[in-house]
Amino acid sequence: MQNAPASTPISHDMHLAVVAERDTLRRELATLKAAFEKLQFDLQTLLRQRFGVRSESIDQLHLFGSDDVEFIEQTKEVPVAPPVKKAITRDRVVLPADLPVEREEIDVPASEKLAADGAPLVRIGEEISIKLGYRPAAFFKRELVRPKYADPRQPEMGVRIAPLPPQLLDGSLLDASLGAHLLVSKYGDHLPLYRLEQIYARGGIEIPRSTLCDWVIALTDRWLRPLVMAMKEHLLRQSVIHVDETPMPLQREKRVVKARQWTYSGREPKITLYEFTEDKQGEHVRSFLAGWQGYLQADAASNYDELYRQQPKILEVACWAHARRKFFDVAKAAEKNGQRVLAHEAVEYIGELFAIERAATDAGDDPEQRHARRQSQAPPILDKIRAWCDEKLGELLPKSPTAGAINYVLKNWGAFTRYLDDGRIAIDNNAAERALRPITLGRKNWLFAGSNRGGDACAIAMSLIATAKAHGHDPLAYLTDVLTRLPGSSSKDLDALRRCTETGQILKHWSTTRRPFPPVGKRACRERGAARRHDALSRSSPGRWACPSG
Questions:
Q1: How many CB atoms are closer than 10 A to CB 64?
Q2: Fewer C-beta within 10 Å: the chain N or C terminus?
Q3: Is 357 helix (H, G, I), strand (E, B) or coil?
Q4: pLDDT digits over 273-296, tens only?
Q5: Phi and psi at residue 161, in whole multiples of 5°?
Q6: Interstrand relation of 314-317 and 294-297 (parallel, antiparallel or unpaired)
Q7: CA–CA gap between residue 368 and residue 507 (Å, rounded)
């Protein structure tokens, strides 16, 4: 048996080369694994965006920068409990007591009204079945009749006739009621003008789309713009304002550019204003808020940075819902694989902060009480979140989504904790995000604004519609009232018209025939559902549609 050959000695340089190659392969393997997990995260997010509840924008898919972000997360093999399905409860429709009634009597034949011996049967009662009907809106001609007077004995004295009241558009058929319907249909119900053209044609009136467009521009630019400017002055007197923006496609020659619709929302009283701009540069916010000071609730976008530098009396307040969303996306993607990751802990910690806010809302706390509640309960939770972020950041790859979410919170920690300073400040910027939903719904139907004037018209009309809805008013009744009053009003009357938005003091003939628009929002829906159930039990309906702010 031959002896095995002795192993060939390896030089030091060759050993170093082998070790270096091994380390390179390990790094490449870790990179490939991270890229694979990142692709899994993107896939789950896309599937949720495409087929799940569309509460988030697809623009928020890549939340942490470039597409080559590494995705690696510490996981614990703890199965996630399946969600418990809540029982679906549906409220029975309760009709208003003052709803017009059309009675239709369905009687038996005359031969069946006789007894066996031929004697007539006696009517002892009736059984009533209720059905809810609908009659489509119809056009009508409103004639403005002005009698003429003259003295036949002195024809040289001329004819006396009452002057024609100021009109919206001289020489036009447009009435305030039709103008209000046009604006609410387009900007409240999101119907493009070509559909309204077809709807009006079915009613027997053919109005060219170009005429409808001219009416929209004239109503908003000539009559409603001064009222919106008066509302802006009142908004800038508030100490807390929410701001956000969303894309609004704008048609240019042979192309469409991405313009923006901004929203500015206040809560004391509720005012929602929109502003159309050709881009999302921060100069637009600086111009809108020039001279204002207070708490600005916004996301941590870079286009606000210069505002805070130039105007130090404007204090930044970050949105905890935005921070939670970053962790939630990672946690939701991990749940598809039955994993519990670090992002789940962050979502639970932030949920404790929101639980404090819900308790304050359910208790009906005023701003001072809410401030006291926050000061006593929120700081320990915030300290726990800060310590958790500092601890876990060192355990993650710098470019992982969870690390990106933690860096987002730590970088803006002062803005995230500023809501503790005043009970009037909200914990999130959801007020502005809710205000942008009508824009996102509308642009799916309008597709784009045809011009800058069209974008401005959208901002002006939606400012009045959103503010009227926020105060529980029917926007059609409100705009009809406003467009009726404006032609004969002076600049001094604008403040009175602005107060109409907040108090519901509209024309008497409208207030007696139109019910206020029900408030919106989850809490308002719960309150309306409870009120309806109470009415159904008590068989009475006084005050069911009463406006809480009017």
A1: 18
A2: N
A3: helix
A4: 999 999 999 999 999 999 999 999
A5: -150, 145
A6: parallel
A7: 37
Considering Cα of 299, then 304, then 309, then 310, what sign does the dihedral take?
Answer: negative
What values do phi and psi take at 209, rounded to 5? Answer: -60, -35
Element spanning 289, H or E: none
| Cα 73 from Cα 334, distance rounded (Å) | 9
Are 160 and 169 in contact by the 8 Å Cβ rule? The answer is no
Strand partners, 295: 240, 315
DSSP string, 481-503: HHHHHGGG--GGGHHHHHHHHHH
Question: Is the per-residue pLDDT at 522 higher than 80?
Answer: no
Task: Report the predicted TM-score, pTM, of the whole model to 2 decimal places.
Answer: 0.76
Q: Which residue has the tokens 């993650």?
A: 396
CA–CA distance, 150 with 111 (Å, rounded to integer):
67
Beta carbons within 8 Å of 338's beta carbon, 6+ residues apart: 79, 80
* Structure token digits, residue 90: 């549906």
Angle, helices 430-446/452-470, rounded to nearest 10 degrees: 130
Take residue 372 and report the two structure tokens written for it: 């006291």
With a CB cutoff of 8 Å and minimum separation 6, the contacts of 22 are none
